[in-house]
Protein 1
Amino acid sequence: MKTKLFSELMQFAFSKKKVSEKLKYMWLGIIYFAILSKNNSKGKSNSSASESASGDDIYPLF
Amino acid sequence: MSIKKKKVMTNGDTTFYQFDAQMGFWGVPNMEKEVSFQQRPEVPVRVKHNSDGNRDEEMILGAYEKSIVCFGGSHTWGGAVDQEARYTNRLSEILNRKVVNMGHCSLGLDQVCLSVLQKSSKYKPEIIVIEQYPWAVHRVLNNYVNGYVRPHFVIDNKGKLQLQKVSSLAKIPFFRNIIGNFYAFRKEFTEFKAGINLNNKAGGTFVDPIFVGWKTRHYDYMYDIIDKILLVVRDYCFQHKIKLLFGLGAIQQQFGPESTSELIDYDLPRKRLIELLEKNKINYVDMTEPMLKEHTADSPVIYEDGHINAKGHDLFAKVLHKEFIKLNWVTE
């Protein structure tokens, strides 16, 4: 799972046109990898916005 | 309160906004400024916020008086139009009763829901109107807007709606940028995995994927969140004996040439939203037909960027009024 995520992050970085952007997104991918990986391991399957960011206060509404 | 010199406002301008711990951002209270908007830069427009940060006059209600409260985005706030020309002001004139404008630029349906729950009771609403520009439903997936982190909803593993509040750190712009940049990266990464690239607008052939049939699956989660948000608003209104009406605007692209591809449908977000409103038995009025009918090249109802102009606002108010009568909420 973690390998897949890392691979996707690198694919995302390499999809950028400029070399500077590729490097920037590789760097960001490495930084955010831990948070994204943690969310993935929780088993949340929602694609876009379900992952929580550390430091955020989450509580059930109802 | 002082009147400052004219400024040209572009879409996404945050001149009138500041950090708000509950909503992510909200109007700056007691601010008054004469500005011009990119839609008609030659015309000065006075924008005045009241002590609640709403673009409205101070509202004092009588002991037994109830109001009509209108929520929405920049259309309701009155982007590029004079305060008096907005549909809320026009509706107030038609009905001769107090209509509160709680519209704010770039507000998402999630923030509207939170505003209904947390800010509306002060105005003792009898009727709540939620103006929703159908394309703007995507905002529930966009957690970082115009430099502000937005509170948003997620669906947990048990299928329940959860609120993800704005971190208290977001009050400080430095931390807000860090959190926001993560959200922006995560959104872009998720879109990349779905084959969506919102930055690739070169060549003038860009079509927002929200209108594209084969990208619909990516937005299923968004419509699931909207479905649950609608339920929250509906139940809140039911419990507090408030009448609820959604006003759906016409999408800018619908005023232009029809799509030549059957796979591109500018009506898609509107149809999906209507499906959800009907499923949840929520009253709505669709402005598309009257707006398109009244729109001509010489006398348009929208500006080039899709925001409704004074004529559009007037029409919006008349259609709302007609719907109120139809629903037996007001007398003729």
Protein 2
Amino acid sequence: MKLSNLALATWAYGSLVLVMAILIAACAYIVYHGGPLITVDFLWLYPAGMPLGVEGGIFPAIIGSILEGLLTASMAAIVSIPCALYMVYGNISRWKSECFLFTLRCMSGLPSVLIGLFGYSVLILYLGIDKSLLSASITLTVMVIPFITLRLVKVFHEFPRETYEAALNMGLSPSYIWMHMVIPSAMRDGLSAIALGAAYAMGATAPIMYTGAVLYTRSIPNITDPFMALPYHLYILVNEGYSVDLAYATAFVLMVILLCINIICRWIGGRS
Amino acid sequence: MHLSDRFTSGIVPIMAVSVLALYIGLVLYMAIEAWPALIHMSWMDIITGTVWKPMAQSPVLGLSYIISASIYVSLLSLLWALPLGIGTSIGLSLGVSPRIRQFCLSTIDMIAGIPSVIVGFIGLAVVVPAVQSMFSLSTGESILSASLVLAFMILPYIVTHCTESIETYRLRYEETALGLGISPWHTMKAIVLPSAKGSIILSSVLAFSRAMGETMAVMMVVGNAPILPSLLGKAEPIPSLIALEMGSVEYNSLHYSGLYVAALVLLMILILTNVLVYMYSWKTRKDGHHEVI
């Protein structure tokens, strides 16, 4: 092998090994430090101690994060599914579809802090809605719509065009074909796209910091109540220096929840 | 036509158009909210001003240290992440079997799903103390730590994109090159990498725009002091500024509007990079190549 090719190979293998090692080490670090601290009490109790959070558990934060994920996913699905159907089957001009794609691609990279700022000033300051699970979920929905829609467009494109046209020629209406053929056949991949969007929303901190997440709640939140969320709880524990141990444990729980959603979605997506 | 049919075929275009309207509205809203600050001080004064005192009697909104901190951190993180990322992509494309490649790519993809607040926490627990003891600083919270943490955040993104474009070109030239007796590594160096150069540059531009907007991970390790950024000193990038001050601003004050100017800078960078990428992919499609990004 020539020297320059050897250098290229060394660079390639070296960085491959290094990158995989760094990425896996980061996960292992959280598992190593957080894993042993997980107890039944930690998962089932409310935060306690003074200041709140130095003792006790994170039960309301787990429930809050899950509720937030579900609410965001359902709102985003209601908007994203019609939007994706329109982009694939709406018979729109090339120019229009480029316009949609460009906007969605651009906005899928929108920094989460800008979404937080937008949500906070429109919902809380301008419309005067109280900080709540609902306002936080609406803000997160704005964040995940492009993410979910772009994936759904890909999923809907997989439905054979010939079948769609054959069905149209048999006199079926487009909406009948969507409801009875396209959506059922895309159910599995579509749901996994939406679940990935929910995982993305559940990990975000900046959008919910001022739109609904709080330090402590005394009960399971209603849709109009402020709520506790795992990422925000972790941020407060670390930033205020309350308890490093509980921060490791909280990070572990959050990471396990999100990785589980990711693995399940990829497994489902990989099978079809 | 059934009623339900009419409902569905009516609601679909309405939803789609309102999504478009939502995002265009978001951009316009940011511009409108930034307007009072832009009247108070001119664009140039804000971008070149060094003093950020939004609460003073007559507020001064100089963003230059804050913008340069953002650019500094992002460029530095690209400096760490690009060589590693491109090397990894070459390794994945040539060096390993398809099974291992698939395994590595899915692992990387999954790790990209780790929320930035956890990455920031790891950074605070590992990177900050390491930087602190290595350079014997009073605190390790610095641009250097932030750029290392940020490099971790954008690595998966760079690897995924680069692997995709390098694979495209490798598969296109592989058989011909092997037929001519050229070794795969030489083909990679002489043909594949030069052809994929454009899309690699573009994915780094996109990664740069991601890095500029990354909030939590950077905010937790950068120290958040709006001073002249230096490698081993504290700094405050745009997202940290917005996230930290958003909660305490008075609605419709100049401070509030000033935050929107900062937001507008981020938004402009995002839109600009996306336009760049769009123009490039449009040009390659017109030239009859496959779309690579």
